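My current task is to audit a protein record that another person submitted. Thanks in advance; the entry in question is below:
***
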Amino acid sequence: MHDGCSGTFESGKQIVDKIRMMGFNTNPLGTPLEIHCSNCDAIFQMETMESQCPACSMVYGVTPCHSHSAQFVKAAGVNY
């Protein structure tokens, strides 16, 4: 069920699973976000709701309601 913007997620895997289930994972962000990879320290531009670090393949996700800020982006795992 869709929780709107009130849904809470404890992990990046939960976020990525949710946006994949709803078909939002390939949706473009309104403005790309600069992400500092928690796995390899690379900096890259996140352009879709689900993105992968080009240096180490760490997968990141963000929900549509929170896609305006990098603080809400969470890592799901390498090649998740």
Observations:
- The longest helix spans residues 12-22.
- Strands lie at 28-36, 43-48, 50-52, 58-61, 74-78.
- The mean pLDDT is 93.
